[in-house]
Amino acid sequence: RGLFVLIHGLSSNASYWNQYVDLIGNDFDLFVPQVTKGGHCTLEEATDPIYEKIKEYALQFPEKKICLIGHSNGGRMVHSID
């Protein structure tokens, strides 16, 4: 159906999303990255690796939608990914 990208906040980690991953289930593809240095880096350092993975997915599955969700500083990262 599509890809959910769940990005955690500053000084957090990917496990923040565990309870939500279980709720989403197997109906969607999931990408729950560990943000570089827990987000204690430039915005570009944090988002560039995430963006590359999203771009790969979009090229492989052009017909599928992608939903970006961020918590706290992860929301800031979501808005910077174009």
Give me some keywords for this one.
three-stranded parallel sheet, 3 strands, globular, 40% helix, 3 helices
Describe this structure in words.
By secondary structure, the protein is α/β, with parallel strands linked by helices. The chain contains 3 helices and 3 strands. It has a 3-stranded parallel β-sheet. α1 links the parallel β1 (2-7) and β2 (29-31). The two termini are 21 Å apart. The model has no long low-confidence stretch (mean pLDDT 94).
Low-pLDDT ranges: none
C-alpha Rg, in Å? 12 Å
Oligomer kind: single chain
Percent of residues in beta strands?
A: 15-25%
Which geometry do the CA atoms define?
A: globular
Report the total helices: 3
The helix-strand sequence is: EHEHEH
Distance between the termini: 21 Å
Order of the strands making up the biggest sheet: 2-1-3
Class from helix and strand fractions: alpha/beta
Helix content: 40-55%
- What's the pLDDT, averaged over the residues? 94
DSSP E strands, number: 3
Provide a short characterization of the protein structure.
With 82 residues, this protein is an alpha/beta fold.
List the helices and strands and how they pair.
Blueprint lengths: L1 E6 L10 H7 L4 E3 L11 H18 L4 E6 L2 H8 L2
